[in-house]
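Hey,
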Amino acid sequence: MGIDVQQLAFAYHKGRTVLSGIDLGFEVGQLVSLLGPNGSGKSTLLRLIGGFMPPTSGSIRIDGSPTNALSAHNRAMRLAYVPQQPSLAFSYDLAAYVAFGRHAMGRRDSDLFAQEALDRLDLAHLADRPVGELSAGQRQRAAIARALCQLMGDRPDGCSRVLLADEPLSALDPRHALLVSDLLTQLSTEGVLVIAVLHDLALASRLSDRVVLLSSEGRVLANDAPEAALLEDNLRSAYDVEFDRVSRDSELVALLPRSPR
């Protein structure tokens, strides 16, 4: 079970390739970080995996089926997506918004799971608040809670659960960034495949089972465990800047870009 990406290429316009030659395999129970410079195709890759648009060439399969050929029900059973900038410009209260995560599956157990998702994202006290009145960080946690609600409950045998999260920590204060980081780790231990776009290299090193590092040309520079992927040579190739490795008791604390002297 999991996701298989073979010879993937994508171009928004003819002659402007965003991703090319992507071969990746993702297994359930992993936490995978997608890293790379701005414009390297991280968000595009996440959306392609989610089946929101077809690749220009190549294939993406989840549990053996092309993701963009799945019915809405079968896709919702497998894939939950948290966009980079959730759009919540309507008048539903937060509890109803989170419960929508299960509606595509035709489930009637949404209220119970929505409450649990709100609790895990420290949002229960805002359950009756219109989502349009939430702060940016609260909206981001609301989108994660909705995706979490969607992933809860039993699945048929052979049905993977996948969370696709595009910069899920970008608007969060330190306390809630830690809460969401812990949640992503917990989900992977619960058998969910978590694929997250991140920019914090040290955080990706601590959280991830695997790191996929993309180049500015939309190709895979590294696809390995963090200690093997986040090498200075790889990072220099990806970001065109020198990095210093800062360690404490042999544990990686930070990878810091070095200003040219």
